[in-house]
Each structure stands twice: as C-alpha cells, then as structure tokens.
Prior knowledge:
Elements: H1 2-19, E1 22-26, E2 29-37, E3 43-48, E4 54-58, E5 62-66, E6 73-78, E7 90-95, E8 104-113, E9 116-127, E10 130-142, E11 152-154, E12 160-163, E13 182-186, E14 203-206, E15 211-216, E16 222-226, E17 233-238, H2 256-265, E18 272-274, E19 280-286, E20 297-302, E21 307-312, E22 325-329, E23 335-340, E24 346-350, E25 366-370, E26 384-385, E27 388-391, E28 398-403, E29 411-417, E30 422-428, E31 434-438, E32 445-452, E33 456-464
Parallel strand pairs: 26-33
Antiparallel strand pairs: 1-2, 2-25, 3-4, 4-5, 5-6, 7-8, 8-9, 9-10, 11-12, 12-13, 13-14, 15-16, 16-17, 17-18, 19-20, 20-21, 21-22, 23-24, 24-25, 27-28, 28-31, 29-30, 29-32, 32-33
Bound molecules: calcium ion (2 copies).
Amino acid sequence: MKSFLLLGWLWLLAxxxxxxxxxxxxxxxxxxxxxxxxxxxxxxxxxxGPDNFLWLTERPGRISRxxxxxxxxxxxxxxxxxxxEGEGGLLGMALHPAFATSPYVYVVYTYLASGxxxxxxxxYTYTGGTLNSPVSLIAEIPAxxxxxxxxLLFLPDGNLLMSTGDAADQSTPQxxxxxxxxxxxLAPDGSVPAxxxxxxxxxxxxxxxxxxGLALGPNGRIxxxxxxxxxxxxxxxxxxxxxxxxxxxKGFCDEPAEKAFCTxxxxxxxxxxxxxxxxxxxxxxxxxxxxxxWRNSLLLNSLKxxxxxxxxxxxDGASLQSQPVLIFNRQFGRxxxxxxxxxxxxxxxxxxxxxxxxxxxxxxQILMLQNKxxxxxxxxxxxxxxxxxxxxxxxxxxxxxxxxxxLPVAAQVTVHDALxxxxxxxxxxxxxxxxxLPLHHLRAGWYTxxxxxxxxxxxxxxxxx
Length: 465
Ligand SMILES: [Ca+2]
Ligand SMILES: [Ca+2]
C-alpha cells in the first residue's frame, strides 16, 4: 500500500513537473520550455510543414501532423511495411519544396525482405488528409539493427539528399558501388541528377559511419552529424564528392595512420569532433531574431549525453566560431528530433522509449522552446496594418501587387518561401500603390509577400504554380 501511494505521488510529481514550463537562460534571453505533446514513441523526424503544422515520424512507423498550438497529434498513416529492428524503423522524412502543387512526402525506413533487414526511400502523396500512392524510389539498401542512418533533406536546387549508414559493415563506406556509408543525391522523382559527382550514381559524399542529422544553412551549406565508434562523434560540412574518412579516419586527420589516407583521398575533416562520444543526433540551423544569441548557429541534439548544444558558426558558415555551448544537460533525457519554426520557436523530440532510455509516463515528448518576450515586427506597437492584395493568385511568372492607397514613404517588398527564407525583394517607391513582381526564378509552392514601411505592414499568402 505504501509503495502504491509512493508510486502515485511520484506519478503526480512527474505530471506536475511536465505540466509546468521550465526556463533556460541563453545570454540575455529567457527561453521557456513547454511540453507540446506526450506519450509518443521515439519521434525521429520533426518538420515544420507549409501548412504551419509540425510533421512527425515515430520509429514504429507512424506519420502524424501536430497542431503547434494545441499539441493535438493527428495520425496520417502507419506505414505497414516498417520493421522496427534494433535502431531501425521509420526514420527521416522530407516534404517536397513545392508542396502546394506537388504534395509529396518522402520517408525512409527499414523493412524485411526475405528475412533480411533492408532500407528504402518511399514517396507518398498527401491527399484527402492522408498519405496515398506509395512509390518506392530506392529500395533494397542493405541495413542492419545498427547504423542505418538516415536523414532526408531537400536542397535549394530542388534535389533531395539522403544519408545512409555503414549498416555495420565497414567495407561499404569506401566502396563506391555500395549505397551504404554515403550521402546520396537524387531528383524528386528518384532519378540520378545529371550533375552528381559520379556520373549515373547517387553518391554525393562517401566515408560515413552512421549519420543522424542533416541541416541546411545559408548559401546552400549542408551540415551533417554522425556517430563515431568509441570516440569522435562528428559534425561535418557536406561538400560534393568529398570523402569523410570512415573507417580509416576517425574525427580529424591527426594520427599517423590517418594522414596518408587523408592526403590521398582528399578527406574532409569534421567541423567538430566529440570524444568521448555523445551520440549526436538531430541537427538544425537557427538564425531567427527571437533568440538573438543563437543567430547563425547550429543546434545539435544528443541521445546518450541528453544534451542540446549550440554550435556558433563563423559568418561564412564554413567553420565554428567557438566551442559548443551547452543548453540542456539531461533534463529531458535522450534528445533526437529537432526543427526550427519560421517564427523562431524550436521544437525537440525526446527519445526515451527507443530501447536505450528509461522513459517516464509522459515519454516521448515534443518540447517547445520559445522566447516569450520576443515581439515580432508584425505586431510591434505603432505598426499599422496595411491593405494589400496580389493578383493573380495562384500566379505563374509574375504577380501584381496593389495597395489600397499609396504610402507617403517607400516600402520594402519581400517574398518568403514556405520555410520563411527570403527569396525575392523589391522597393515600392513613395506615392506608388502598384508593383509587378517577377516570379520566374521561383519554384511552384507556397510563399508569402510582405510589404513593410516604417509604420505599416502587411503579409499575404501567394501560391506559385
Ligand atoms: Ca569523418
Ligand atoms: Ca583522428
């Protein structure tokens, strides 16, 4: 009876601890951590969708949308073929960048073929609130209970990156015929882009062990995290055609046996390496004014160490500016999934039910990090709403912008893509209420057009076909 009561109290304390937001101090900024969703199982990928919902994979095979305000989790599909063997299961996910007109959802998972663990990349179509018409783009990739990767990331050029692990076979990463231990680059239809480093091959980089994070930075820079063996977890800058060393090289080219290989194979050294290892995982790029201390930084989760780290980048993004900065240290257990919302909030997924963690009644959880004191420009007191329309909408090669009345001062017109990145800019002169914006350089998809003067602002949604 006593132990029952004690357990009851512990449970209550755990719920209270979860329900109340905690804070972490980041320089001058107080970041509030709130639990958005609970009782998930090993969230693996977390994305901010163009529908302003979070998109989630859970390793047993579920794909869901999460309302970022209420935390309601709406299941879209349980992928029937997923085999959650060891560290495998449903892993990375990416949404087509022109989702409004090409509503494709890409997922990578492990499955069983004749009793063997394999990995495949599958494209679903999002229609009618569910996922239909699976098309297998790359299948029969050797996999294992460990080291199967795998993250997906769309590049600014419209192609898709997929990272793969060595599948516990160290002969694969340096074998250019094998799809394992690589970063693969493919067109959205699964074909090999004509400008890949090796003609006719998916291979974009080689020499990887077990990639667990993939993120896009400014100027198209690509960052990846991967697990080392007993030492040398790495964060790498991914460059076309480069060799990342595994299994001959661990971390930097600093041992005699590594140096000759590094010279011979033009090995790209990591931006940073951790020994002992942390089990680095989800990786994201942050550059929002909401948490100014994190601007131009990578945010990196870790499983074993349970840490969230900030990796400040140099202005050109090619190296780190300083040592990693510790943000969380085991407060939430194992951390894996991460994404940054266009409004500067950060969402994290715990990974306490992945077989290596303890797990509480609320695990796994989605955590929301935000600076509640941040006031975005759009609602700054004194900024008045502006009446703006765009025509046609959807548009193709250009769009006409109309203000209800001309402004006494010049206004900035900025087009942002679905992820909040500026992709076009023009100036609307004082006294003018009409402008034509060229769109031919933009891909089909969802965008916003922002018009801003010192006192007034408007944001309208634009679809490009
Ligand atoms: Ca390496
Ligand atoms: Ca080394």
